[in-house]
């Protein structure tokens, strides 16, 4: 799937949501399966508690969220108590969770997906996927590579 493809087609591949991932998040499942619900949640902003849950979903990888939220490790805890994060912060966190969910679905195993996110991937110019999750372009690139893996273009 190329960069110019309709994003709804990309998200359609995420319709099946890993129940383990959902169990850790205090968000409705529809946020991950329905673009309208996703947009509504982004506009509303996610509570800081969801950031805590998202860090847990990424096996405690705080550094990725420090980059995504453009803060320092010492200030990350300040986001935890917020009633609602900004739109851009909420969208980045939710979209990163969508990428994680997609990786889990492609690999069929949460542990394998987490390992893949932390290893250098030649199709990502040798970058680790987790190091690209802080930008929309990076998340889109990861989704593109996951789609190729899913459809057997390479493994």
Structure notes:
Residues 1-11 have low confidence and may be disordered. The chain has one domain (7-150). Helix content is 58%, strand content 0%. The chain has helices at residues 7-12, 19-23, 30-33, 35-44, 48-57, 62-68, 77-80, 87-107, 110-117, 136-150. Helix 4 packs antiparallel against helix 8, helix 8 (87-107) crosses helix 9 and helix 8 packs parallel to helix 10 (136-150).
Low-confidence stretches: 1-11
The secondary-structure class comes to mainly alpha
- Proportion of helical residues: 55-70%
> Radius of gyration, Cα only, in angstroms?
15 Å
> What is the N-to-C succession of helices and strands?
HHHHHHHHHH
Number of helical elements = 10
How far from one another are the termini? 16 Å
Shape: globular
Content of β-strand: under 5%
Mean pLDDT: 89
Total domains = 1
Largest sheet: none
Question: How many strands in all?
Answer: 0
InterPro entries: Xre/MbcA/ParS-like_toxin-bd
Protein name: Antitoxin Xre/MbcA/ParS-like toxin-binding domain-containing protein
Organism: Halomonas heilongjiangensis
Domain Antitoxin Xre/MbcA/ParS-like toxin-binding: 104-152
């Amino acid at each position: 799937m190329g960069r110019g493809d309709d994003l709804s087609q990309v998200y359609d591949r995420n319709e099946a949501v890993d129940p383990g991932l959902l169990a850790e998040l205090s968000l409705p499942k529809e946020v991950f399966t329905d673009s309208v619900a996703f947009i509504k949640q982004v506009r509303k902003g996610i509570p800081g508690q969801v950031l805590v849950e998202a860090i847990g979903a990424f096996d405690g990888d705080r550094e990725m969220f420090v980059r995504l939220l453009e803060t320092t490790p010492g200030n990350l805890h300040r986001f935890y108590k917020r009633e609602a994060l900004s739109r851009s912060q909420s969208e980045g966190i939710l979209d990163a969770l969508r990428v994680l969910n997609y990786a889990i679905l492609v690999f069929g195993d949460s542990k394998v997906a987490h390992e893949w996110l932390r290893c250098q991937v030649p199709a990502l110019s040798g970058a680790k996927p987790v190091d690209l999750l802080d930008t929309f372009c990076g998340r889109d690139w990861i989704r593109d590579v996951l789609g190729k893996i899913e459809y057997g273009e390479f493994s």
